[in-house]
Write a structure and sequence with these properties.
The protein is of the alpha+beta class. The strands form two sheets. Strands 1-4-7-2 form a four-stranded antiparallel β-sheet. It has a three-stranded antiparallel β-sheet with strand order 3-6-5. The relative contact order is 0.24. Helices cover about 20% and strands about 25% of the residues. It contains two helices and seven strands. The chain is globular.
Length: about 130
Amino acid sequence: MTATPTYYHGAKADLKEGDLVSAGFASNYGQRKAAAFVYFSATLEAATWGAELAVGDGPGRIYIVEPTGPFEDDPNLTDKRFPGNPTKSYRTRDPLRIVGEVKAWTGHTPEQLQAMHEHLANLKRLGIEAIED
């Protein structure tokens, strides 16, 4: 019997246990269109990026989540940038239920954050958007 992995969602929203994270809100990336999916990961590293890069004024937060429906590999990362799914990143059209919060996590260095912001700005200049099919 295999153990169910722990799933994480990085955000700046102030949520509590039992809350649902749903699609349909403005995306954190690209033109900020209403997101057709909710994204999550089985790695704390990917969730850390989500918490740090999310739009908003509050502090970044990493929530432990439980998918409420089917999900698939995130095509923005899987086989586009990395063979397979080493970041263990996923997306779903169904809500994620908050089951906890990671209170102690380490963010990236200012240099790493600056490099990522520059990378995202370059993608925007090139007109490259997240996959939302």
